[in-house]
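Moderator note: this is an archived Q&A kept for reference. The question asked for a predicted structure of one protein chain; the sequence and the answer are reproduced below.
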Amino acid sequence: MNDAVAALRAGQAVILPTDTVYGLCALPEHEDVLYELKGRDRSKPVALLAADIDALLAARPELDREVLERYLPGAYTLVFVGVGVRVPDLPKAAADVLRAVGVVAATSANLSGGPDPRRVEDVPEEIRTACGALVDAGELPGVPSTVIDLTTGEPRVLREGAGPVPE
């Protein structure tokens, strides 16, 4: 855990397990490294990942607690105007890292368009070697989060995933 916290604070990317797939994470002010490592189009935003709703609200106080609590924690990415957010049910080691740093910018730890990594070995070697630290929690479910667009007031599912589609 300490290696991951130190790497994040030094501006490096780290690989953390979530409740769905392995994530590629960096402090929000260093999110450019995520795009570089993945080969991701910069028009596709990354999400903010937090250990709990309070940490998320400390970073983004304009978000609506009631809406967050309707879906989180859980296997959802919520898209608000200007930001996507996640508060997954994290393995303890990943939760400890996030509690130490607050929030991170995150995306799946794969090359853009590649398969979602359910094991550390599924993360491409070039990403693993470029990261400052890696937290291994064994095999994960491997299904990405359900993405819900909340920008229009009426929830709209953009991607079905691990979280059940809300009624």
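Archived answer notes: The mean pLDDT is 95.
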